[in-house]
Amino acid sequence: MYRYDEFDSxxxxxxxxxxxxxxxxxxxxxxxxxxxxxxxLMNGVxxxxxxxxxxxxxxxxxxxxxxxxxxxxxxxxxxxxYGHFTTRQxxxxxxxxxxxxxxxxxxxxxxxxxxxxxxxNCIRNVTADHFAGAAADxxxxxxxxxxxxxxxSSLHPEFSFLPRKFKIAVTGAERDRAAxxxxxxxxxxRRDADGAIGFAVYVGGGQGRTPMIAKKIRDFLPESDLxxxxxxxxxxYNLEGRRDNKYKARIKILVHEMGEADLIRExxxxxxxxxxxxxxxxxxxxxxxxxxxxPPDLAELPPHSVVLDSRSAGxxxxxxxxxxxxTAHRAPGYTALTIxxxxxxxxxxxxxxxxxxxxxxxxxxxxxxxxxxxxxxNLILPHVRLDDVPALHAGLQAAGLATPNAGLVTDIIAxxxxxxxxxxxxxxxxxxxxxxxxxxxxxxxDAIGDLKIKxxxxxxxxxxxxxxxxxxxxxxxxxxxxYQITLGGSADETATIxxxxxxxxxxxxxxxxxxxxxxxxxxxxxxxxxxxxxAYRRIGAEPFKSALYAEx
Amino acid sequence: xxxYDFHAGAFRDDDWIFPDDDASLPAGKAAVSxxxxxxxEEGALGLVLTAGDTLDxxxxxxxxxxxxALRFPRYADGRPYSLARRLRERHGYTGELRAVGxxxxxxxxxxxxxGFDTLDIVHPGTIEALRAGTLxxxxxxxxxxxxxERPAGYSWRRVSF
Amino acid sequence: MAKxxxxxxxxxxxxxxxxxxxxxxxxxxGGWAPDVARAEIARDPARADALLAAAKADxxxxxxxxxxxxxxxxxxxxxxxxxEQIRATGPTVGIESEH
Lengths: 552, 161, 99
Hints:
heterotrimer; B: alpha/beta; TIM Barrel; 3-stranded antiparallel β-sheet; 10 strands; 20% helix; globular; C: alpha+beta; 4 strands
């Protein structure tokens, strides 16, 4: 993984000093709250429902064991012993004191981490495929490009006061696990016939109040043009994006109002003027960054593990875990292992300090000390020997982290909702918990198969409900929590915005509604090989609507 | 009136005049709005652009301009940064670029790196910090800036002096 | 006038502490306390305005941030809106609710 050099280290230290000065000026009264707010937001500090919340960047979801241990330490010393992994591969602490945040940031800098641009109207933490560098189907490792973009976007003098926030996601596989088509810029690294690397460039995707699938504006942008082209897009957006209405300020609205053709013309014109500037990426520099992401020292192993096969034959828990939580690795004999943060009845994405330490220990012991955070709010150990899976599984069981539900109905994405968030209209976490409890039976989960439920507590859609196979949006109806259901959404390479099925359900009926939807699917699917999304795309919304609303 | 000059690293007196659109053009160095600049052939040497103005329709007149003042209605309105870059890069403007308005010290380095030469600002704390030289700054940068800076390692990195 | 008073719903004033961020309520004594039970309840618009003005003065002095009025039950003094109930008593779920 990337390691800070002296320059990076100086940069982060200077940024901490700058923020320490800003906090001191706020506490002394030189800065008013109105003046301070954008400054604290640019460093990930929100004032939430109960307290200040600090959002820490986990660049493209890559963490070391040492970093995770530091996060556990921070959870204990500065917070209340836990943290929340988000759908943007970040970590949130919910109870930090403003006056202590500069010290906390100093501790983060010790392990090459920061909270720069995890909020504010700037380029946010760049996200990527959480299986990068490990997935069997990967064409290009997206991490070097995500790192270059992270650097280029950090305290960018031109793009720190954009009309609205700006999110970039990068993948390097045909199978899109980074949801690039619902980002402001989505990049798919690929190779041409000669093996040269370039990017399919998508612009103007997003969720929120007006969900939109991005438009592809370049099929193969040469690698060397990456920064110049992103600069061109950002410059057009910075100048032309709407600033009169925050709900219309994202680039997706600009793309929509300007039209794809005009936007492309403007971006290409801007790009022409940026060609040949120092923004061109020299291949040697890309190679230098890429060396940080060289694969670990993997042994040559047979593709199957006799140890694992025999152990899981006699252990139904392990067997289920192997079936659900392992993903094909590019190297024979290895796997990418998902640690579900969706234990039945727990808050999706929450991890206690002890659990963070446990994962750090296991990662060091069995997985080269590397951890990933997925936008699905789980953790991944990207390089694990199949032979080590039984021991690792036992270690995870001891920490309460062996839930074998990756990708299943109980692996629910949920935003913090009204339990924590100042913007929320309804709670998300308790709904996720009740759905998970309803479907807790592992045999039943297996029978249902792949199904992504995503829950947002307001229209900002942090819980990605628009792209859930089943999406739930919490709304406030005269002081009561209601949940609107969408069906058929998807965030992968077949990205689709879900359709609203009808009137929302009150909190006490929403779990029944989900069960009714699942029952329709089970009844009408061809067979177990047709998953929920495929069945929905074939049969449409009608059977679900009649099941939900017929008898009313 | 005094403006802060990035090149000198100090405040200096300034004699530019900014007449209202309905006032007559004074002799000497006067900067006028884009509307007036485009509509009247009166040879003003200075141009005032507000966030939201475009650079369209200025034609070749920019070649004689000695000052472009970019107004920040709110410091969170970042359009002038991109206008500044476009003026330099696309229009080849080489005269003085001035930031006017609601600017906090936290934006001072961004302005310098976006190619501004001078600041005409009102925030007392920022003016004081600039006078006293007590700005807490980040001197390591991950992008080429408009100002001459030392390259540092990777092609996109710079260190400011 | 009587009609206005009849429509008025009792309010308390809440804010967050500038330094720590914790939720606070304006008290009878003219200070701030984390316990909603200690909040002064304004039962007419004039008192509500006065409390809010005092809170805004504390905001301007850098004691609290984001002061605002919340509707409270006239008998129990508890916030009416779910959001404010959660602010007063903490998250309803998760690791925190087990404390």
